[in-house]
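User: Hello! I'm new to structural biology and keep hearing that structure can be predicted from sequence alone. Could you demonstrate with Acyl-CoA carboxylase subunit beta? Please show me the input and the output so I can see what each looks like.

Assistant: Of course. The first part below is the input, the amino acid sequence of Acyl-CoA carboxylase subunit beta. The second part is the output, the predicted structure written as tokens.
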Amino acid sequence: MPILTSDVDTASAAYLHNREVQSAAVAALNEQLEIVAAGGGERYVKRHHDRGRLLARERIELLVDRDAPFMELSALAAWGTEFNVGAAIVTGVGVISGTECMIIAHDPTVRGGTMNPYTLRKNLRALDIATVNRLPVVYLVESGGADLPTQSDLFVDAGRIFQKLTALSSIGIPTISLVFGNSTAGGAYVPGMCDYAVLVDKAAKVFLGGPPLVKMATGEESDDESLGGADMHTRVSGLGDYFAIDEVDAIRIGRDIVAHLNFRKLGPGPTQPADDPLFDAEELLGIASGDSRVPFDPREVIARVVDGSRFSEYKPRWGTSLATGWASVHGFPVGILANTRGVLFSEESKKATEFILLANQTDIPLIFLQNVTGFMVGAEYEQGGIIKDGAKMINAVTNSTVPHITVNMGGSFGAGNYGMSGRAYDPRFVFTWVNAKLAVMGAAQLAGVMSIVGKAAAESAGREFDVEADAKRTAEIEAQIERESHPFFISGKTYDDGVIDPRDTRSVLGMALSAAHSNVVSGRRGFGVFRM
Ligand code: COA
């Protein structure tokens, strides 16, 4: 297979500028991740430890295999909102007893581990990832239930958690709950719906109503243990399958349950040599543009991400604003689509369509490296059928059934986001580089469009156009869109599965591909490959 070369000049002004901007963005990301890892903060962490309990991340660390990585997802959920960044829950893919699982852990140090609307989004996304990739779910439960002041944005959709858990079980994906503390009211249905429930002695509290509510409802005097303790549930009600003497014991039992699931991946293992790229991933910080309006050659990225920097380019001389080709990542064969110059023309759209069909014909997963400003506009292109050609690409992306993994490297704007397998097109995973932006269009363009529309409206109404007010409004809109295009904001809304350091791309793709191969990897059959 052809091997990529590199033209990167590490002494050039552009490289040094990019490096500076990207490094600052990575530092800002790390700062946020530290805040996330601190949970509810020192006071609540100390109180939790003083109660003899482990933190959510400590539980996960003990649960996963020694030295196995944990790919955390949606770490920045709720960023920029009134809620704690991280949204009081930790989710991610980790290897337990040799099996890749989706781990979902409440963080009891943040408002008692209660669920706000962002917690719910993050939780549901984790369950969706488990479903499409066929990953067993291990729930680490300790939650006060609903964040009550936000119940109206929460209550109805929260039912989906239990619905999805049941649906997972019905398609042969095991679900396991380890209950460390509160799991009351609606929360009781987590152990209720999971295939296995492990309850920690003197800590698990699994009941529909606690003692005060029972007293109010029926006048009965009761206590936590008789209503929902581990001893009662494992001896009397039978809800608990396993009695754990403490947290570490519960984790041991959880690992043992996964060990005997006899869970086998349905996709093939890595089939290609998984040798390192020939070029240094460190250089990605100088390659990725510091300014999202300045494109860069994605082959420089591919050369630092794929096995042995091998890349067999498909149709390299046609539709050159999009690079397409075959490679492998950590031994998993992949097809890659990567924007080279931002805009997608008709040729690029047709080339992408053909390439996606080819990947489906041979069951090869696709990686979309986005840096796209949208489909080309203008009379020439409209008359040339750009809408029809974009529609072909979007159709192919929609109906492709091989796993898609999407990485926004710089910008993801307009319908380019859709064609390049944006979140609405159900890629298995979506990641965003630290300095990438996402919006319907760039902030300046959007503000400019609004200004033109305002001027036309004033003219047609016979009003005088207030130039000064327009300039102020334009500046405000531009600032707003700039803020909303920021990767932390996008991740805060869980429109992706995480913001990543560009240097981690190969590792993240490798883990995502491995997870995707837990399920069958099978392309769409039925049409053959249309020559466009
Ligand atoms: N909604 C919103 N905030 C809540 C909450 C809820 N359901 N439950 C707790 N909080 C807040 C508390 O007000 C407190 O805030 P503060 O520290 O700013 O004062 C913080 O979370 C921690 O609560 P605290 O009670 O000190 O923690 P704890 O670890 O001792 O107990 C709970 C945690 C969850 C067991 C306990 O708070 C509780 O029983 N909450 C009510 C649970 C409930 O009824 N949920 C509804 C189920 S549908």
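User: So the tokens describe the shape?

Assistant: Right, they're a compact way of writing down the 3D structure. Reading them back into a model, for example: The radius of gyration is 25 Å.
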